[in-house]
Automatic annotation (TrEMBL):
Gene Ontology biological process terms in this record: endoplasmic reticulum tubular network organization; membrane organization
Membrane topology: Multi-pass membrane protein
Name recorded for this polypeptide: 17807_t:CDS:1
Transmembrane regions: 19-38, 50-70, 90-108
Primary localisation category: membrane
Localisation per UniProt entry: Membrane
Record key words, sorted: Membrane, Transmembrane, Transmembrane helix
Annotated region described as Disordered, given as residue ranges: 177-197
């Protein structure tokens, strides 16, 4: 018997529910990685579409799992009791709820902003302490991991440390988004703050 042509094999594979389940997982994985990049670089709002698309992938995967486990939905009490015991149904509902609500990070940033406005002096002392702590840690690591401070450090480790340090510095810099203008009061506040340091 001759093997089937590639087009027929791919067509058979694509029609199987397991392929849809796999596509849902791929969507979740890749959208998570892309959104994580935006989140790490403090631009989570720009990557919001990937955040929500990841939940669509999760809903797709859990929908396939539930369909394979329980078949076509039936509006009966027995069917409801049966799916009510399955944890995949709860995961699907959770993905739907998170898909329909705002990002958790957006809510956290609003909370932090309101807390800072209420407790400005405490917040500025905290910022000062954290800034000093990071400076102390950076100075300690520079003394331990740079070859000028310690000759036994391998050049590969020193180069890796320099690259990681420059990536952290790059991610922490204030980068205005293109097409958006900051107000004069905000830009003046940032300039006066930069001049005091």
């Amino acid at each position: 018997m001759a093997p089937q042509p590639l087009v027929n094999r791919i067509g058979t594979l694509v029609q199987h529910p397991q392929f849809t389940w796999w596509c849902g997982h791929c969507i979740v994985f890749f959208c998570f990685i892309i959104h994580l990049f935006y989140w790490i670089t403090f631009r989570a709002s720009e990557g919001a579409s990937f955040y929500y698309t990841a939940y669509l992938g999760a809903m797709l995967s859990y929908g396939v799992v539930i369909y394979k486990s329980f078949g076509t939905p039936a509006p009966t009490w027995e069917y409801f009791q049966k799916i009510n015991r399955d944890e995949n149904v709860f995961y699907l509902v959770l993905a739907c709820v998170w898909f329909m609500n705002a990002q958790v990070f957006a809510n956290a940033s609003r909370f932090i902003q309101s807390w800072v406005h209420k407790n400005y002096d405490k917040a500025m002392r905290t910022v000062s302490f954290v800034e000093q702590a990071f400076s102390d840690v950076a100075r300690f690591l520079d003394g331990m991991l740079l070859p000028s401070a310690n000759n036994s450090i391998h050049p590969y480790i020193a180069n890796l440390y320099r690259q990681a340090k420059s990536a952290v510095i790059w991610a922490g810099q204030f980068q205005p988004q293109s097409g958006r203008q900051t107000s004069n009061s905000q830009s003046g506040r940032f300039q006066s703050r930069a001049n005091t340091h």
